[in-house]
Write a structure and sequence with these properties.
Strand order of the largest sheet: 1-2-3-7-6-5-4
Helix content: 25-40%
Number of strands: 11
Number of helices: 6
Radius of gyration: 17 Å
Strand content: 25-35%
Bound molecules: biotin
Distance between the termini: 34 Å
């Protein structure tokens, strides 16, 4: 049975970051599936040490507490699992055919509509204590700052009439619960096929963080991206999960 994600939802008008608020709740023993959602963040966290900026009410921003009893090395797979769930939700809610850019950006027509930030705390035995899965979906933006306008889109821009936040949140939490349950039961191997069906970047040229370039050809059973780096070299790129507040590299 899938774990229930969203049995308890704490809703705020403004917080620094839903990740920070949920981190406090997690440290106090909150149950798996607890959610924090906010209309505005003053210090939203993005991946790669970036800030996640929002204008009040324009984005759906929430964090989900997960407590999988798995080695911490498996936690990055939750990035890919989340990407699959968000694509499922956008299809169900908005009839959109969104695509995933490894590991977890969700794109519509090549522009980013959703970002996912997994932050994890481990136990001394190397297993996961908890994961804070932060999700930000661009919903009502009519335009973006010039530096983002080539790269970002919103559900309003993509469909002309976005769903309301409450429905989008409940559909996304249900999809997350379902995909997370599959991952807990069966591991990443079967979800890998679902990820590949939704991927928008396989066969495309990508830059690897070590400075090399290549063609993304697949993800493996651990969620790592396999890149044909030319001359017979196959690069295996692993996604990172940061400690809360530290920001993933
Ligand atoms: C990315 O950079 O692509 C990840 C962005 C994640 C943003 C979300 S918004 C809700 C949650 N709270 C945060 O502070 N960040 C995540």
């Amino acid at each position: 049975m899938s774990p229930v994600v969203g049995h308890t939802v704490h809703t705020f008008e403004t917080v620094d970051s839903t990740q920070a608020v949920l981190g406090h709740l997690a440290a106090e023993g909150a149950l798996e599936g607890t959610v924090v959602v906010a209309r505005h963040q003053t210090a939203g966290r993005g991946s790669r040490r970036r800030q996640w900026w929002d204008a009040p009410g324009e984005s759906l921003m929430f964090s989900v507490l997960l407590r999988p009893a798995v080695p911490i090395a498996w936690a990055p797979q939750l990035s890919l699992v989340s990407g699959v769930a968000v694509v499922d939700a956008l299809r169900a809610c908005c009839d959109l055919d969104a695509r995933i850019r490894w590991p977890n950006d969700v794109l519509i027509d090549g522009k980013k509509v959703c970002g996912v930030l997994p932050e994890a705390v481990s136990r001394p035995d190397g297993r996961v204590k908890y994961v804070l899965l932060g999700i930000g979906i661009n919903v009502h933006q009519r335009e973006f700052p010039p530096e983002l306008s080539d790269m970002a889109t919103s559900l309003l821009l993509a469909t002309g009439g976005p769903p309301d936040h409450t429905r989008l949140l409940s559909v996304t939490l249900a999809a997350l619960g379902r995909r997370y349950g599959e991952w807990l039961s069966n591991g990443f191997t079967e979800l890998r096929l679902e990820w590949r069906k939704r991927a928008g970047m396989l066969g495309q040229r990508v830059h690897i963080c070590d400075g090399r370039e290549g063609v993304a050809i697949d993800v493996d059973d651990t969620g790592a991206l396999l890149v044909d780096a030319g001359r017979g070299a196959l690069a295996r790129v692993v996604s990172a999960v940061a400690e809360p507040g530290e920001r993933s590299a």
